[in-house]
TrEMBL record:
Keywords: Metal-binding. It comes from the Bacteria. The keyword RNA-binding does not apply. Pfam families: FAA_hydrolase. SUPFAM superfamilies: FAH. This is 2-keto-4-pentenoate hydratase/2-oxohepta-3-ene-1,7-dioic acid hydratase in catechol pathway. GO terms for biological process: carboxylic acid metabolic process. One of its GO terms (molecular function) is metal ion binding. Belongs to the FAH family.
Length: 278
């Protein structure tokens, strides 16, 4: 599922099928309306006898928005890859390190983002979008509470994040456009192994991060269960699940982002997003 010009669409091969039109008004047109009825929507898609027979339009990348454009809650998980904790010379956490990226930072998969300082950093991330959600979700049920997976780029202004003690993770990661997400939502059943996906980040074609989600300290199901042990997860919520090694702030020498650069963030089985920096 994707967000094409503000409307929920199904991605079938190389075309987009409008959900509201295909369902004769039963769902949509806004993506939020679909997440609010995710189990019913999933059943409807599963019952469609001829997906290839649905009429659609060509996918225009520049018109794609974030799959969940107005998430009620956005969660970030720090130090959730073993190799990233090791490169930062920090202990492996015993509990997930949780912060938020405020929802106003969400933007689409082909965004132009203005850098807020000379110390902005990149972090390729697998993102979870919640479907049914709930409170105190059992790990064995967690994947059933998830709508699907998508790609995120966790941009961070390290100058703001670490300008005082204690650090301001949420503020440093929430400037306008600092949460590009997309290009679409992929359900777990479309992936060979949803817990082992390649995660890659390139800047102007240079590979900066190249890891696998199987290196997560707290896998997706554990994150959903542990977050929901405190908060109620809501339809459309987005979870940034952490980043592999290679971020700019711990490189020697450090590598911060510059205007004019292009970040390509890719995840195996899902696709890629492109963020142009200004």
């Amino acid at each position: 599922m994707a967000n094409l010009a503000g409307r929920a669409v199904l991605i079938i091969a190389d075309r987009a099928v409008d959900v509201a039109e295909a369902s004769a008004g039963r769902f949509g047109p806004e993506p939020e309306a679909v997440f609010a009825r995710w189990p019913e929507f999933s059943d409807w898609v599963g019952d469609l006898a001829d997906l290839d027979g649905l009429s659609g339009v060509p996918i225009v990348a520049s018109e794609l928005g974030a799959p969940s454009p107005r998430p009620p809650q956005v969660f970030g998980i720090g130090l959730n890859y073993r190799d990233h904790a090791e490169e930062a010379e920090l202990d492996i956490p015993a509990e997930p390190m949780v912060f938020t990226k405020f929802p106003s930072a969400i933007t689409g998969p082909e965004a132009t983002v203005e850098l807020s300082s000379d110390r902005c950093d990149f972090e390729a991330e697998l993102c979870v979008v919640i479907g049914t959600g709930g409170h105190r979700i059992d790990p064995d049920y967690a994947w059933q509470a998830i709508a699907g997976l998508t790609i995120g780029q966790d941009l961070s202004d390290r100058r703001v994040q670490f300008r005082d003690s204690p650090p301001q993770f949420s503020l440093g990661k929430s400037f306008p456009g600092f949460a590009p997400v997309g290009p679409w939502l992929v359900t777990a059943d479309e992936l060979a192994d949803a817990d082992d996906l390649g995660v890659r980040c390139e800047i102007d074609g240079e590979v900066m991060q190249d890891g696998r989600s199987s290196d997560m300290i707290f896998p997706v199901a554990q994150l959903v269960s542990r977050l929901s042990s405190v908060v109620t997860l809501l339809p459309g919520d987005v979870i940034f699940t952490g980043t592999p090694a290679g971020v700019g702030a711990v490189r020697q020498p450090r590598r911060y982002l510059k205007p004019g650069q292009v970040i390509t963030t890719a995840i195996e089985g899902i696709g890629s997003i492109r963020t142009t920096l200004a």
